[in-house]
Design a protein that fits this description.
globular, 2 domains, mainly alpha
């Protein structure tokens, strides 16, 4: 395979989207092992596996969507939909890469392998048929974030027996990802001509419905995170209830994102917004520093 094809394959793996896999580091952060080099290395290995798995999934998505993507104002420039990368080259590469990564995942522990295997199965199912089922299409995407959070704990399990993540933190992860996904669907309906031609499930959505789902998801994400910070198990685990002071960062971040969606008519590319919007980047950074300071000063 020549360098040009490898470059097109790398582009099809969408490295810019790999930031979603940073969720895997939640395990090492909230288990208070961030400064344990061996455990941090394990989290990084898990992160790398999920980044490459995500890349293989994106190739698979592009193969299935190549015709509809060809009519999309942005997606038509992707290597597969534009014809720069042939399906006969892309599909075998994605299948081989997925298989190899699942083998690597097994060596990182049975629990991590299970999370990686379910992640792969859900994404294959999404590419084949779940993307066409209203509501379930968004839930399947958000479930992947949940699996990433679980994988971040699972990869540490061989070294830290009994490690677990709060169900409230998992609920927050689920609804925060639902919030971002519904915002993306809203943007697609508002600004794509013949939106249902690009994504079949969009014909079942409406702006009014999505506005309600965005509000529900945002509210539940904030409430679940707030409950997590003051939950007796959390306070007992960390010996402090000071995590409650991180709630304003979460609220501001969600409000700022709502402003971007409703006032600036953006939100079609959540990863792009999260990488380029300075106010959100600063908020996430300050939230992270505050969490680290609270957990390690106890």
């Amino acid at each position: 395979m020549d360098m040009k094809k490898l470059w097109y394959i790398l582009l099809s793996m969408r490295p810019r989207q790999w930031t979603k896999n940073l969720v895997l580091f939640a395990g090492v952060v909230f288990s208070r092992h961030l400064f344990d080099r061996s455990l941090l290395d394990l989290s990084f290995y898990g992160f790398a596996v999920f980044c490459l798995l995500s890349g293989a999934v994106y190739i698979l998505n592009d193969v299935f969507d190549r015709r509809s993507d060809g009519e999309h104002p942005v997606k038509r420039r992707r290597p597969i939909s534009s014809g720069l990368l042939r399906t006969v080259d892309a599909l075998p590469f994605a299948i081989v890469l997925m298989t190899a990564l699942l083998v690597v995942a097994w060596f990182l522990g049975p629990a991590f392998f299970t999370a990686a295997a379910i992640f792969t199965a859900v994404n294959v199912a999404y590419s084949m048929f779940l993307r066409n089922v209203v509501i379930l299409d968004v839930f399947s995407i958000s479930f992947n974030f949940l699996l990433r959070a679980v994988a971040g704990v699972a990869v540490l399990e061989p070294r830290v027996p009994g490690i677990e993540i709060s169900p409230w933190l998992l609920i927050c992860t689920l609804f925060l990802s639902l919030f971002l996904a519904f915002c993306k669907r809203r943007n697609e309906i508002e600004f794509l001509s013949e939106a249902s031609a690009h994504r079949h499930s969009l014909q079942h959505y409406s702006v009014r419905l999505l506005d309600q789902l965005v509000g529900l998801s945002a509210t539940t994400a904030v409430v679940s995170y707030s409950i997590y910070t003051i939950w007796p198990t959390t306070v007992e685990k960390f010996g402090t209830s000071n995590l409650v002071y991180t709630i304003p960062f979460v609220v501001f971040g969600i409000m700022r994102y709502l402003y971007i969606v409703y006032s600036r008519n953006e939100g079609g590319d959540p990863s792009g917004v999260l990488l380029t919007e300075k106010s959100i980047l600063i908020t996430v950074f300050l939230w992270f520093l505050t969490v680290i300071w609270i957990l390690w000063r106890v």
